[in-house]
Amino acid sequence: MVTWATQYKIDSFRFDLMSFHPRAVIEQLRARVDAATGRRVFMLGEGWNFGAVGNDARFVQASQRSLNGSGLGTFSDRARDFLRGGGPFGGGQSLVQNQGAGAVRRRRPPAGARGPLRPRDRRIHRAAAHRGGGRGRRR
User: Fold this and answer.
1) Which of 22, 54, 84, 100, CA to CA, is 20 to 30 A from 7?
2) What's the confidence (pLDDT) of residue 68?
3) 47 or 128, higher pLDDT
4) What's the pLDDT at 81?
5) Burial of residue 116 (number of CB atoms within 10 Å: 0-12, 13-18, 19+)
């Protein structure tokens, strides 16, 4: 990564399943890359909490719940669902029926939707996204 950042001027890196690595290792890696380049290199990853390392079973994971304040970014499924609507496995008609905040400004529901969006559901969804959507964001 130091070579990519110094020789090829890569300014950010994304990790699949970053939570399968210890947070300390990712922080050390970022420190080495930053020192070699003389600038801050953005690092982002999938911070899911699951599998054999779930709930910090083997080490403190580089996961959404442990990255707050680290300067490392993590993909936020809560923010995605809030904006897009639906859930992590939603698609097609369920996205039309369960629109997120990115679509609630429409005056009429799109074709195929079952009735208007209910204000109470919209408020609950926004509140949940506000509570959980910021976990682990880069700071």
Assistant:
1) 22
2) 87
3) 47
4) 80
5) exposed
In one letter, which amino acid is 27?
E
The set of residues, in sequence order, having a beta carbon less than 8 Å from that of 59 and lying 6+ positions away, is: 22, 23, 24, 53
Burial of 110 (0-12, 13-18, 19+ CB in 10 A): exposed
Q: State the residue for tokens 């496995």.
A: 89
Instruction: Identify whether 77 is a catalytic site residue.
Output: no
**Chain segment 8-33, per-residue pLDDT in tens:** 999 999 999 999 999 999 999 999 99
- Residues present in the chain in total: 139
* Arithmetic mean of pLDDT, 95-120: 61
**Single-letter code of the amino acid located at 26:** I
- List the catalytic residue out of 34, 46, 56, 77: 46
